Amino acid sequence: MDHSAHTPLSAAELNGETLAGAKIYDTEDNTIGSVSHLHGAGPGAQVVVDIGGFLGIGAKPVALPVAQLNFMRDEAGVVHGLSSSTKDELKALPEHRHG
């Protein structure tokens, strides 16, 4: 997928409603996972991404600063994000737990 024509999200759009369910891709366009939810909003938010699994089963939730992901809309208006990390690098992060 050529992301160069996609529209970056504004800081105001970095919220749970806009990002929930957004697929996350690595630099090779492999699907890493999807956004489960956010803690906070805007540039300081933490994005919880479910990594791996199948249809959410067996996925590992990890928390990432929203600034580590490049969120955008494609030509159809679908929100997705790019990570400079690989799936394996993200899987190595500690599991996010609600507490």
UniProtKB/TrEMBL annotation:
Species of the source: Cereibacter changlensis JA139
Protein name per the record: Photosystem reaction center subunit H
